[in-house]
Amino acid sequence: MSERTPAFYNSVSLHWTAMSLTQQQVQTASVDDEIISCVDRGLESVGHHVRSAVYWHLERMGHISKFEIPENPEAFIQGLRAVFRESSAGVERAILQEISAKFELNYSNAKDLVEAISELKAKSIGQ
User: Fold this and answer.
1) Count of CB atoms situated within 10 Å of the CB of 64
2) Cα-based distances in Å from 71 to 15, 74, 95, 97, 127
3) Is 105 helix (H, G, I), strand (E, B) or coil?
4) CATH assignment of 23-126, among 3.40.50.720, 1.10.1200.200, 1.10.150.120, 1.10.3720.10
5) Helices (DSSP H) in 45-112: which residue ranges?
6) Where do the structural domains in the chain lie, given as residue ranges?
7) Which of 8, 19, 42, 123 has the greatest number of C-beta atoms within 10 Å?
8) Longest pairwise C-alpha distance within the chain
9) Residues of 16-55 as b/e, b for ≥16 C-beta within 10 angstroms?
10) Under a CB-based contact definition with an 8 Å cutoff, are residues 113 and 91 in contact?
């Protein structure tokens, strides 16, 4: 081995250390992915093409991207209500049912989607 070998290994080690995620970060990312999947399935209740149109509209109108929903459920709900108007309650309820089923939670119909997502995020961070 040459003198440069240890330096190479040290730089690789530093690179991997900087890139490694904590277990909490991985857990939070997993919960975020599951929330997004629940939103997808809830929006499927109005149809595949409508779901795609909703995501397009939310991004286009500057409300939020699909992947930002777990971090900013308020903006998502605001955009959803702009799209569906009076019908948004049914879509929100469908998404809430998906979240309840996936995470084995018993959310009443009175609990809103923003609160449910916020609680899931808080639980994932607190674990």
Assistant:
1) 21
2) 28, 9, 16, 19, 17
3) coil
4) 1.10.1200.200
5) 48-60, 73-84, 88-102
6) 23-126
7) 42
8) 71
9) eeeeeeeeeeeebeebbebbeebbbbbbeebeeeebeebb
10) no
Q: Are 73 and 113 in contact (CB under 8 A)?
A: yes
The span from the CA of 117 to the CA of 22, in Å, is 22
Token readout for 22 is 């904590």
Per-residue pLDDT of the chain (127 residues), as tens digits, is 445 555 544 444 444 444 444 554 545 568 999 999 999 999 999 999 999 999 999 999 877 999 999 999 999 999 999 999 999 999 999 999 999 999 887 766 557 889 889 888 888 776 5
State which amino acid sits at residue 10. Answer: N
